[in-house]
Amino acid sequence: MHFFNSTTSPNEEFMARAVELAMRGRNRTAPNPTVGAVMVRDGQIVAEGYHRYCGGLHAERECIADAKAKGVNMSECTMFVTLEPCNHHGKTPPCTEGILEAGIPHIVVGTRDPNPKAAGGIEYLVCKGVRVDQGILKEQCKDLISDFLCWQFKDRPYSILKLACTVDGKIAGTTGAQEAVSCPESFQDVQRLRSMVGAVIVGGNTLREDNPSLNCRLDPLPDNFHQPKAVVVTGHLPENHDDYTLTTTRAAETIFWTSEEQAATKTATELKDKGIEVQPLPSGKKGLILESGFKILRQRHSILRTLCEGGGKLACSLAEQGLMDEFVMYQAPRILGNVQGRANFAGSGNKLISDTMELRVSRVEQSGRDLKIVFKPEGQ
Most exposed residue of 86, 112, 229, 370, measured as fewest CB within 10 angstroms of its CB? Predict the structure, then answer.
């Protein structure tokens, strides 16, 4: 049982707890949305639930089951749920029916469900005499389903950009030498990000300078886990391809996105002979059109989420091409102070602050000694 004592409204505190619970299921719910719920009686949370995995009970039914196990009289309760309860039969029965069967008289919904198949839950509950309020922490609740919105309305994976930088925005020193910028706790958090994506994406400079493996190194790994594919975006395929981890030990899981000209070279043929996928992308004024590659990942490999780990030029390309759905920044309390250091975003021709891309802060938390800030594009 949880008690809250805060200057914010109790309703916001209860919904904030539902958001926190929802985040626990993010790794395993795809392609379903991430949802959390709490049951409140007399100003106290008396039961909780969240959608744990695709095919499992939805958050509302998990919360109801928890309340039943604790002997809670739900006719005296209010349920706070981050997403509008579904009103259709899928892998599980409608949550609206579960709410009515439990006798819950009052529901507070964070945000409406954008899925036409699932929408209408609020209206159905209201017509059955349930009081429904909406819009508590609406932005935070909508952020929980931003990946789901991408899957519903776009034919590409949800794109997460991750960068670790100093306070002055540097991801590496002047030489580009591989050095840890962030703390061990942030490194572990990145492994959790890798565990929930189908592909990890880097630029050609990162391949050449860091020789990464781009695999998930959680210990233990989740059950039935498949390592993410490794995607390298480069205008020049590596001729010395026996020197890299990706092109030797991870060849079957590696994809190169490159120009049509490079894809027709002898090097491309040699990479394909190793079992590596070489995917030509069309080019525009600012280089490769990356959306084409993202669509192929969704259509050919059924990938729902990707994680881009830079460098700065690739990060900037993603942002400028509208392919940065979420930006996770680990800001280390360190200052390089050298203008020649590698910037977290690089390659734009913008000259004025008025030219900048606008972001909004979705959430902020401590990650060891670092600050973890999650941004979303403004308007999303």
Answer: 112
